[in-house]
Amino acid sequence: MTKRRAQEGTPVIPGNLHEPEDCRAASEVLARVGDKWTVLVVWSLGDKPKRFNELRKALGSISQRMLTLTLRALERDGLVTRTVFPTIPPRVDYELTRLGRSLLVPVSELGLWARKNRPAIQNARRQYDSDSQTSD
């Protein structure tokens, strides 16, 4: 078993000081945008507005309740708009706001990174699991 030692003598750079309020703010936003369904909904809405059932079909395994909760949270956070058209039955479209569209770049980059690095991560997991079994 390897122990990690604290880094001694590391200079404290003023721009890197830990600010609890900044940390909480970042955690709150990352909890929203890092959620599995949020990423997939944002990605799915990237090309055009969609109706609820279009989104549900595009996402596959999401439940109606989870999609509803995710869309409400995204709307509350200003990432998605919900437009109700006065038809019978009413038509509701969901669309990314400008803020939501700005999330497409990092979401796409993260998706590319995940696809590119998945084999390396799977290998690392196998190695870790193998090492863990031999050290028990």
How would you characterize the overall build of this protein?
With 136 residues, the protein is mostly helical. It has one domain: Winged helix-like DNA-binding domain superfamily/Winged helix DNA-binding domain (Arc Repressor Mutant, subunit A, Orthogonal Bundle), CATH 1.10.10.10. The protein is 60% helix and 10% strand. It has a 3-stranded antiparallel β-sheet with strand order 1-3-2. A hairpin with a 5-residue loop joins β2 and β3. It is extended, with a radius of gyration of 21 Å. The N terminus is likely disordered.
Please write out the topology.
Blueprint: H1 20-33, H2 36-44, E1 50-51, H3 52-59, H4 64-76, E2 80-85, E3 91-96, H5 98-102, H6 104-135
Antiparallel strand pairs: 1-3, 2-3
